[in-house]
Amino acid sequence: MADQTHVSLEELRHDDWIGAADPRDPCDRLLSWACAQHSFEPVHTLRTDDYAVVQGFVAAGAGVALIPRLALGPPREDVAVRRLKGAPLAREISVAVLRTTAARSIRELVEALTEQARLIQRRWSDADADAGLA
Hints:
Blueprint: E1 6-7, E2 16-19, H1 26-36, E3 43-47, H2 51-59, H3 69-72, E4 83-84, H4 104-130
Parallel strand pairs: 1-4, 2-3
């Protein structure tokens, strides 16, 4: 499937999966939910919390993996990184502060995190457009 631009989860039904060390990891839970929509549960043969190690396992042929785009980093040349077909899988990341917190530093931190999220989204959108994926 390395020659495809997108791969469906259904096509990966019988593959071994490399997952997070903790099966309650948000990405593993999202993967299980998405696979359940295709009537299967991914079989994890290896588990680690190090995404560089995940890529090494994939490169060695030990299985496939779902890696958050933010955690992907520069992909290895010996690993084919492909998008999933269909709606993108996503999780929401939030910042929680006490309502009574009035510290300027907290507002500045939340504003900085929000701005960085916008920059990342814009960079990915531009990269997708350049790659013809938008």
